[in-house]
Specification:
single chain; about 400 residues; alpha/beta; Nucleotidyltransferase, domain 5; Dna Ligase, domain 1; 3 domains; six-stranded mixed sheet; five-stranded mixed sheet; about 35% helix; about 30% strand
């Protein structure tokens, strides 16, 4: 007998690692049944710099996940992030054709909101309705069935560099996998780790990966602002390697086992042993020295995040605080530094509302699990492998999903 549940695979192409997660979607929720990961060998700062190495890394992670489940994957949802991602707001206004607002009116309003000239080297990957106005009455989450003569949609539009989209799709396709959808990774991570109350009250998700730190601000149940900072965990590793003159591999181990983003938590007499990069001899290093190196880079990152939130105008609208996720969020002391600099509550976010393999209930897999949860709720966006638009009927269904999930 065939499987009754729908199977969805996600591919998270990160700077440090590539992970493939396979989940089963049923009425009861999401059950993670397979996971595979492998170091990224062709990615820098979230961008593909070596196609062949990236293809090989995806292949290895894919084979591991398939071996765990016994399922041959042919399609997948794939994450995208990085400094090339840009978001902006735009409004669309239409006249209501009848006395009552219909799905077609909502579609037309959203289409009008996205009817804006963007550079030819960019691709729209998400159009997220934030609110609707009916005859200038605002704050409406779902105008379907309301009476009026004028409907306005206010939307947040997220675009990506076409070259980045094409490179990701090519690398995945070369493994025999069709890209079902591209999903912005901080939105996926938010789906995985944020509670509905956090999205409603106002919060900022900070996904700290290897090469970039991605930000998504949520207020009144929907995303209001996205940004990316070209600093991540790999920069911390590099700083340690340079600061104490040790190989990158040992610096990474030191960061994971002995690293701390808060020098105040380190005893003055704490030491560690590592290899000197010059003569390969062992050397004794103060843990306080390492902590101060880490602290400087972490503080710089959160100062840039604070500047981004402030300039976007949302610093005073985030009572639910900060949710840190991504692999670097596991660094000791990082939540304290974030709280001190951003001056708001901070917690570490791990995937929630999923069953199955416990390994993925870890901030490292927030984007990967979130993509599957995103798909399970019908939140798939307009992009597909050929960049074609979906049918109007499917768009009607997605609009219903936007209302039920975004608000």
């Amino acid at each position: 007998m065939g499987r009754k549940n729908r199977t969805v695979a996600s591919i998270d192409i990160g700077t440090s690692k590539i992970s493939v997660i396979i989940g089963e979607i049923s009425r009861e929720g999401v059950d993670i049944i397979g996971v595979g990961s492998y170091p990224s060998l062709g990615i820098k700062k979230g961008q593909i710099i070596n196609m062949d190495s990236t293809v090989d890394s995806i292949k290895t992670a894919l084979e591991e996940a398939e071996a765990m489940t016994g399922i041959d994957i042919s399609t997948a949802v794939v994450g995208i992030a990085g400094g090339h991602i840009k978001g902006f707001k735009n409004n669309g206004v239409v006249a209501v054709k009848g006395k009552e607002i219909k799905n077609s009116d909502i579609v037309s309003a959203i289409d009008a909101a996205k009817a804006i000239v963007i550079p030819i080297d960019r691709e729209v990957i998400h159009i997220i309705p934030q609110e609707f106005l009916v005859d200038d009455h605002g704050g409406i989450k779902d105008p379907l069935g309301m009476s009026g003569v004028r409907l306005e949609a206010r939307a947040y539009i997220i675009t990506s560099a076409i070259s980045s989209v094409q490179n990701i799709v090519k690398c995945v396709n070369k493994n025999g996998i069709k890209v079902q959808e591209l999903i912005l990774k901080p939105l996926a991570s938010a789906e995985s780790v944020l509670t509905e109350d956090e999205k409603e009250l106002g919060s900022v998700l900070i996904d700290i990966g290897g090469g970039t730190t991605d930000i998504a601000i949520f207020i009144k149940g929907t995303v209001r602002h996205c940004a990316s900072i070209p600093i991540g965990g790999d920069h911390i590793t590099s700083d340690i390697a340079i600061g104490i003159r040790t190989p990158i591999s040992e610096a990474e181990e030191i960061k994971k086992k002995n690293g701390n983003a808060s020098s105040l938590e380190i005893p003055d007499d704490a030491i560690l042993e590592t290899t000197n990069i010059g003569n390969k001899k062992k050397q004794v290093i103060s843990q306080m020295t390492v902590a101060r190196i880490i602290e400087a880079r972490v503080d710089e990152t959160f100062e840039l995040i604070k500047k981004e939130i402030t300039e976007a105008g949302y610093m005073d609208f985030l009572p639910a605080g900060v949710i840190l996720t991504g692999g670097t969020s596991l660094l000791k002391g990082i939540a304290k530094e974030a709280q001190d600099i951003l001056e708001m509550p901070v917690r570490i976010g791990s995937p929630i509302n999923i069953e199955g393999i416990n390994e993925v209930k870890n901030p490292v897999y927030a984007a990967g699990t979130g993509m599957i949860q995103f798909a399970s709720k019908g939140n798939i966006n307009r992009f597909n492998k050929k960049g074609e638009k979906r049918s109007l009927l499917n768009l009607f269904q997605r609009i219903k999903d936007w209302f039920s999930e975004a608000f």
